[in-house]
Write a structure and sequence with these properties.
Layout: H1 9-13, E1 47-52, H2 75-89, E2 95-101, E3 107-116, E4 140-143, E5 151-154, E6 156-162, E7 169-172, E8 178-179, E9 187-193, E10 208-215, H3 221-225, E11 230-231, E12 234-245, E13 253-261, H4 264-273, H5 303-315, E14 339-345, H6 368-381, E15 389-395, H7 399-407, H8 412-419, E16 426-428, H9 431-448, E17 451-457, E18 467-474, E19 479-487, E20 493-494, E21 500-501, H10 502-508, E22 517-521, E23 526-529, H11 546-552, H12 564-572, E24 597-599, H13 615-621, E25 628-633, E26 637-642, E27 648-653, H14 658-661, E28 680-686, E29 689-697, E30 704-709, H15 721-724, E31 725-730, E32 745-748, E33 754-759, E34 778-783, E35 789-794, E36 810-812, E37 822-826, E38 831-836, E39 846-847, E40 850-851, E41 854-855, E42 859-860, E43 876-879, E44 888-893, E45 910-916, E46 928-930, E47 932-938, E48 941-946, E49 960-964, E50 977-979, E51 982-990, E52 999-1007, E53 1033-1035, E54 1038-1040, E55 1044-1047, E56 1055-1057, E57 1066-1071, E58 1077-1082, H16 1093-1097
Parallel strand pairs: 1-2, 1-14, 14-15, 15-16, 22-27, 46-49
Antiparallel strand pairs: 2-13, 3-6, 3-12, 4-5, 7-9, 7-12, 8-11, 9-10, 17-18, 18-19, 19-20, 19-21, 22-23, 24-25, 25-26, 26-27, 28-29, 29-30, 30-31, 32-33, 33-34, 34-35, 36-37, 37-38, 38-39, 38-42, 40-41, 43-44, 44-45, 45-49, 47-48, 48-55, 50-51, 51-52, 52-55, 53-54, 56-57, 57-58
Length: 1098
């Protein structure tokens, strides 16, 4: 492609950047299309270690009241319930293990509620009090069980542990103060206290009787968490029941369940430990750290030491992870650097890593020294050869702690989270919030473990406020996300925070009332709401067809039932359905190969004389049209997201995917494609008016194309389904249509009609009731308004047993009058076809080259041994820089990457520049060969240099050039582009190595005229941010400008933004299979010749 006659940059950039579209050998039997992205086969599941802070204060409820671990209102039960929910939602999705605190000297103790610094005088009670806890005024009260009708008033009520049940105790100290002393810790305790006097025992009217204890009390974990070492003049206790208790800690963590695949066996192990903490009897019992014993809550909070134990566990070390800490036989399984810890605590560290005493400063709810130790321990955990990203959850923190940090931020837990690489801690005080917190964290973990698809950018001239859009997916649960990133004034991507995440937005949209989802009714040829019929046995003309109802009433195993309505609601996003696949993170499905298409205000420069109504009027009418981004998802829908907010405004369910929709609900779901094609959205004219029309295929999701009128987003609703859905064209309309991997072109024809043009795709002989009898590769030209076939151009190449398939075509307006004249497309057999559609009558359209009545390709791609090379990406058409008399250069690469066996193929693939000067090109013998001459390392980056063999277009024996890709298995699976007299493309090198993101590839840049080395710098090879004469590599004694740059994982096609970079440089955006977006600068463009329609409109 070139820059001549460019009508709208956004369209060029938004053409699909397929990560998994196509390399292999010559045409063979029907393709074995992969049902999953080929590059995910080498990924590993994320390792997640859940660390549960099971200290004694888990006996409390979120307010600090002692209720016992088994009480459903306890911190323990709330935390365990939320954790078990995560285990359920992420079974078979992640690797997971469970750690708690190491404990010692644990014994059964009697648990009581204990109001500290209490009062019996109602004059001291003020329920609206919001002051210090050290005050004669009390905010809370509880009935005095020894004196019905009277109350005990307090500000703090924490657990009290004793060796035996003692009933109610009413204790008095004349020397103890509250809360940090000073004062002697000595109490007289009685079994009964009546009246409202706060006087000392023995004083008239004091009301004490029956002395039961004379002595002191020791602070527990709950007390230390509140920085309480003295309990005040009046202390009361009320029996709750037996509990585990320890007043110390060895200072480390304890691994209860080593990390392993979270299958049903592992889930059972973790859930057994998360079961309700067993309550001992008064006769006592001994806890054993076996797999069937629930975790017990006892002792202090060794936070620092637990991080140290986790560090040693992940690194296979034993210093802080011996048998006393539950030492496992080995470190966690490899996760390709996706190791995470999720730590839930209800307090701050109150014991050192060696089990030593922590000293608190008066008035502080923590030890600054021990907090610093914890931060260091998290820093160490998140560093080294195996860093573990650490999430921190502060759950039901002590009130004193919360109050203190509300006025004295930041909370030390935030510092720990920052050290762990997660910015800030999460906070929760109840089950609902804790569930939401866990879901947010685990969704975030999956998002970091996922892979990415194509990218789209809002505009070519980037200013602050611009956006880039990227589809993502996670193969662990096949969830998806569609993310908008802001761009700064230099064009750099701001990765955090994101502008919006569509998955989050969609989860918040009610499946029934918050989404507009439409579909197509084949029997009437009209759009309808995607809703279950009022009477499914007799649907109305505006409801689902009977065949669609039957498909939804079929279980994933193929049996007929009556569950269709529930399945439809599930597909709409209803998460309450039971017996169906759990979607733990997002109702948005995986987005793999669908390239997003951004649509703002009409911006094409179409002539006002092109149609009866001037285009400028249409452009002015919709000048303020809200921005939309369209992308296909493998949840069965084409989605339309608001470009500013991320809200889904419209979704469309194509009818060809109905036969497989039931599989989305299967509890044993195996991935398959649904709406995986890349849409094209352009302006066209029909019915005496301009319209903005979306046309898309399904790629591996089915055999069909569909069109939608997306002119006015304010009209997006299910009510308008009949006008929004335009048509569908499937293999039921023409059996030669295969799986619809093409991205359509939208053009005006020379007969005056507007049309969608696409190739037939692959496997058109599949036995689905509409099998092709020929297996030929064909080109379809379909009316944009009606979807009716205008013309099918048959190459005649292919058979029923070895079906051929035509890849995405490129359409050329050769004479510049706004109508399509020529179409170029490659096929699986290596044929590059040229179709002539320049006549005003369709009967004259056909292959540009013929031998008698037999179509002949412009060129057949073969390697040096004569083996045909498949072409699965659209060609780029460029005016020959040598001059108009030398015709056009058809630039394209070869390779295939859609079959299950494709990653293992190692045949040589090639990038070609073929001359079309109204004559076919015979073979390689009339092409000039260029080669990769060296690979150089500069600042840790790999670069290629190219040969510079001359190409003399004036010679009758020269008709182009070629470059064989040097790495075994290297191939081209996406279209190239041209800029500043150079051709730019990416290559893919598949790999089956672990943690390889499926492979890697190269960004290649070569001279358009020769296919060889550039004579000027195009890439910032020295990394100084400027492209100038110093951007070279040294080969021998020569300074050479580079022609290729290594990319770390499988790349998409490069999307160009002219003038967006430094000093007017071009920015190239490349999405990679590891989820990153690479932004690479190029020197500015120059105009070199007429462009193709593919560039104008895509």
């Amino acid at each position: 492609m070139s820059n001549m006659n460019r009508q709208n940059f956004q369209y060029t950039l938004l053409a699909a950047a397929v990560l998994a579209v196509c390399n292999g050998s010559a045409i063979a039997a029907s393709l074995v299309l992969s049902p999953t992205p080929l590059f995910v086969t080498t990924t590993a599941k994320a390792n997640v270690l859940l660390i549960l802070g099971n200290s004694n204060n888990f006996d409390e409820d979120p307010t600090g009241l002692a209720v016992g671990s088994a009480n459903p209102a306890s911190k323990s039960e709330i935390a365990r319930t939320a954790a078990k929910s995560i285990v359920t939602n992420y079974t078979n999705i992640i690797n997971m293990g469970l750690m708690g605190y190491q404990q010692s000297s644990v014994s059964p103790q009697w648990l009581s509620q204990s109001p500290y610094d209490a009062s019996y005088n109602p004059a001291n009670y003020d329920p609206s009090y919001a002051g210090s806890r050290v005050s004669t005024t009390k905010k809370f009260r509880t009935p005095n069980l020894a004196d019905p009708g009277n109350y005990i008033y307090y500000n703090v009520n924490l657990p009290f542990y004793s060796s035996a049940a003692g009933g109610s105790w009413f204790c008095y100290s004349s020397t103890s103060t509250f809360d940090n002393g000073p004062g002697a810790n000595n109490y007289q305790c009685y079994s009964k206290k009546t009246g409202t006097s706060d006087a000392a025992p023995g004083t008239s009217g004091a009301g004490y009787s029956s002395l039961v204890y004379n002595g002191g009390f020791v602070p527990t974990d709950s007390d230390l968490a509140q920085n309480i070492s003295y309990f005040g003049t009046h202390v009361v206790s009320f029996d709750v029941g037996w509990a585990w208790f320890s007043n110390g800690s060895p200072g480390k963590g304890y691994l209860h369940v080593p990390i392993a695949n979270l299958d049903s066996t592992q889930s059972g192990k973790i859930n057994a430990k998360l079961a309700t903490s067993t309550i001992p009897t008064s006769s006592g019992s001994t806890w054993a750290g076996n797999s069937s014993s629930p975790m017990q809550n006892a002792g202090l909070s060794p936070i620092t030491g637990s991080f140290m134990t986790a560090k040693d566990y992940f690194n296979g070390a034993t210093t802080n992870f011996g048998t006393s800490q539950g030492g496992a036989a080995s470190a966690p399984p490899s996760s390709c650097n996706k190791d995470f810890a999720v730590f839930l605590t209800n307090g701050l560290p109150n014991v050192t890593s060696s089990g030593g005493t922590v000293t608190y400063a008066p008035g502080l709810p923590y030890s600054s020294a021990e907090v610093a130790n914890s931060v260091t321990a998290v820093t160490n955990l998140n560093s080294g050869t195996r860093p573990v990203k650490t999430y921190i959850i502060g759950f039901a923190l002590p009130q004193f702690t919360q109050d203190y940090f509300n006025t004295n931020p930041p909370n030390p837990l935030d510092s720990m989270a920052s050290a762990g690489g997660t910015s800030a801690a999460y906070y929760a005080n109840d089950l609902t919030t804790l569930n939401s917190t866990f879901n947010s964290i685990f969704s975030n973990i999956l998002a970091q473990s996922g892979s990415a698809g194509a990218v789209a950018v809002t505009s070519g001239s980037v200013q602050a406020g611009g956006k880039i859009y990227q589809g993502k997916f996670n193969s662990a649960d096949w969830s998806g996300d569609f993310i908008a990133y802001n761009l700064d004034s230099t064009g750099a991507v701001i990765t955090s925070p994101t502008a919006w995440n569509a998955a989050t937005q969609l989860n918040a949209q009610n499946y029934n009332t918050g989404r507009s989802i439409i579909t197509f009714k084949p029997s009437t040829g009209a759009g309808i709401p995607f809703r279950w019929p009022a009477n499914s046995s007799s649907p109305s003309p505006t409801e689902l067809d009977s065949s669609q109802i039957a498909a939804l009433n079929t279980s994933p195993t193929g049996t007929t039932d009556t569950n269709g309505a529930n399945r439809l609601n599930y597909i709409r996003g209803d998460t309450s359905q039971t017996g169906m696949r759990v979607r733990g993170t997002s109702v948005l499905g995986d987005i793999v190969d669908s390239g997003p298409f951004y649509v703002g205000a009409p911006a094409s420069n179409l002539s006002d004389t092109l149609e009866a109504a001037p285009y400028s009027s249409f452009r002015n009418t919709y000048a303020s049209r809200e921005a939309m981004v369209y992308v296909g998802g493998n949840d069965g829908m084409m989605h339309g997201f608001d470009g500013v907010t991320g809200n889904e405004k419209l979704a469309y369910v194509p009818s060809p995917v109905y036969k497989n929709l039931t599989q989305l609900t299967s509890t044993s779901y195996s991935h398959r494609y649904f709406v995986d094609g890349s849409p094209t959205v352009l302006d066209g004219f029909y019915n005496n008016a301009w319209h903005t029309v979306l046309v898309s295929g399904l790629a591996g999701g089915g055999q069909g194309y569909f069109a939608m009128d997306v002119t006015d987003p304010t009209l997006f609703s299910e009510t308008n389904a009949s006008t929004l859905a335009r048509w569908e064209f499937t293999d039921a309309n023409d059996a030669d249509l295969g799986y619809s991997f093409n991205q359509p072109s939208i053009v005006k024809l020379n007969n005056g009609r507007w049309a969608a043009i696409f190739g037939n795709g692959y496997n058109n002989t599949e036995a689905d009731g509409h099998a092709s009898t020929t297996g030929h590769a064909v080109l379809f030209i379909v009316d944009l308004e009606t979807g009716l076939l205008i013309k099918k151009l048959d190459t005649g190449y292919g058979t029923a047993t070895t079906p051929n398939g035509l890849a995405t075509p490129t359409v050329l307006d050769q004479d510049g009058n706004g109508t399509a004249d020529t179409v170029y497309a490659g096929d699986l057999a290596g044929n590059m076809w040229k179709f002539d559609i320049s006549a005003s009558t369709k009967s004259s359209w056909g292959s540009a080259y013929m031998t008698g009545t037999t179509p002949v390709p412009l060129f057949v791609a073969k390697d040096s041994g004569g083996t045909r090379q498949p072409i699965t990406a659209a060609p780029d058409i460029i005016a020959n820089p040598a001059g108009a008399s030398y015709g056009w250069i058809i630039a394209f690469g070869t390779g295939k990457y859609i079959e299950t066996g494709d990653p293992a193929t190692t045949s040589t693939q090639t990038f070609y520049g073929i001359q079309d000067n109204n004559a076919t090109v015979s073979d390689r013998s009339v092409l000039v060969q260029q080669t990769v001459t060296s690979t150089q390392t500069v600042n840790g980056n790999l670069f290629r240099t190219l040969s510079s063999n001359p190409v003399n277009w004036t010679l009758a024996t020269v008709h182009g050039w070629y470059l064989d890709l040097p790495t075994s298995g290297e191939r081209v699976i996406s279209e190239s582009t041209t800029n500043s007299k150079r051709v730019i493309f990416t290559t893919v090198i598949p790999s089956t190595a672990a943690c390889s993101s499926g492979g890697d590839g190269w960004l290649m840049e070569m001279d358009l005229s020769t296919g060889g080395a550039l004579t000027y710098p195009s890439l910032d090879s020295n990394g100084d941010g400027t492209i100038d004469s110093s951007d070279y590599v040294t080969v021998g004694t020569q300074h050479v400008y580079v022609g290729g740059m290594k990319l770390g994982s499988i790349p998409s096609a490069a999307r160009l933004q002219n003038g967006a970079g430094t000093n007017g440089n071009v920015l190239k955006r490349i999405s990679q299979s590891n989820g990153t977006i690479s932004t690479i600068q190029n020197s500015p463009p120059s105009k070199i010749g007429r462009t193709s329609w593919r560039e104008i409109f895509q």
